[in-house]
Amino acid sequence: MSTSLGLSPEVVRYLAQANPPEHPALARCREETSRLPMARMQISAEQGAFMQVLARMLNAKRAFEIGVFTGYSSTAVALTMKEIDASARLLACDISEEWTAKARDYWREAQVEDAIELVLAPAAETLDARIAAGEGGRYDLGFIDADKTGYDSYYERGLQLLRKGGVMLFDNVLWSGKVADPADTSADTSALRALAQKARADTRVHAAMTNIGDGLLICVKR
Ligand SMILES: C[S@@+](CC[C@H](N)C(=O)[O-])C[C@H]1O[C@@H](n2cnc3c(N)ncnc32)[C@H](O)[C@@H]1O
Q1: What's the angle, vertex CA 33, arms to CA 30 and CA 35, rounded to 5?
Q2: Which residue lies with its CA nearest to atom 16 of ligand 1?
Q3: Radius of gyration of the chain from Cα atoms?
Q4: Structurally, how many domains does the chain consist of?
Q5: 39 domain-assigned
Q6: CA dist list (Å): 211 to 119, 126, 194, 219
Q7: Structural element, H or E, at residue 207
Q8: In the structure, which protein residues have their CB atom closer than 6 angstroms to any atom of ligand 1?
Q9: Domain containing 154: what range?
Q10: Which of 49, 83, 94, 175 gets the most CB atoms within 10 Å of its CB?
């Protein structure tokens, strides 16, 4: 099971029982995904609970997600958005038919399939198409959890799609601690460091980096 960076199994168990119970579809998604070789890509249960409460705080009715995998984060957020408004919509971007087929199964069980539009294409193309279609300024929430070297392009496109006061979340910004190791100059690590510095100095957002999950950068559009 994915857990937040540096937490002991005891604290993870405590968090699980302190947070609201997971929807059965989320529990099944987490349990079945834990048996896949790429299981560590899944967000943690406590991060899902955080994203649900954030969606509620934003009264989110339109959201986008980059990086669906087997669907934990999209199912969690769509469940909350559908409670807020039956016509709420989540744009889900991924490139994997195989993984998102599993996500569809959990969306069906959670009865959020009608609230999620899956687009299988490189996410930058999908966001460009939405911007070109006049959807700029219409989104309440964005979650970015895919290729790290693409984060800067998602940041710029996401900022265009968000409304004022809307929030973008960037996952894995602590990268298992590798961002704090000056010897690590790999493309992914460097891209994450550059994004953190950019958001910190960017007058277009209010930004905070947190240690939720593998590090979550929270950017509020000014
Ligand atoms: C870390 S996983 C997402 C985990 C997911 N948010 C969850 O809650 O389990 C990353 C996903 O990004 C997708 N991906 C990678 N590159 C992409 C790209 N250029 N555009 C869209 N999706 C991409 C992968 O196929 C994979 O499913």
Answers
A1: 120
A2: 147
A3: 16
A4: 1
A5: yes
A6: 30, 29, 18, 14
A7: strand 205-210
A8: 41-43, 66-70, 72-73, 93-96, 99, 122-123, 145-147, 150
A9: 9-221
A10: 94
Q: Which of 35, 93, 145 to mutate to test the pocket of ligand 1 (most atoms within 8 A of CB)?
A: 145
Q: Which of 50, 69, 93, 152 to mutate to test the pocket of ligand 1 (most atoms within 8 A of CB)?
A: 69
Amino acid at 138: R
pLDDT tens for 192-209 read 999 999 999 999 999 999
pTM confidence score: 0.97
Taking the CA of residue 123 as reference, the ligand 1 atom at the shortest distance is 20
- Cα of 120 vs centre of ligand 1, distance in Å, is 11
Q: Is residue 4 part of a domain?
A: no
In a domain, 97, yes or no: yes
**Predicted local distance difference test score (pLDDT) of residue 120:** 98
pLDDT at residue 1 above 60? no
Res 129: pLDDT: 98
Q: Indicate the pLDDT class of residue 6, thresholds 50, 70 and 90.
A: confident
Rounded CA-CA distance 167/222 in Å is 10
pLDDT in tens, 52-99: 999 999 999 999 999 999 999 999 999 999 999 999 999 999 999 999
Encoding tokens for residue 77?
A: 């957020």
> Which domain CATH number covers 190?
3.40.50.150
Protein residue with its CA nearest to atom 3 in ligand 1: 67
**From the CA of 69, how far away is ligand 1's center (Å)?**
5
Would you say residue 71 lies in a domain? yes
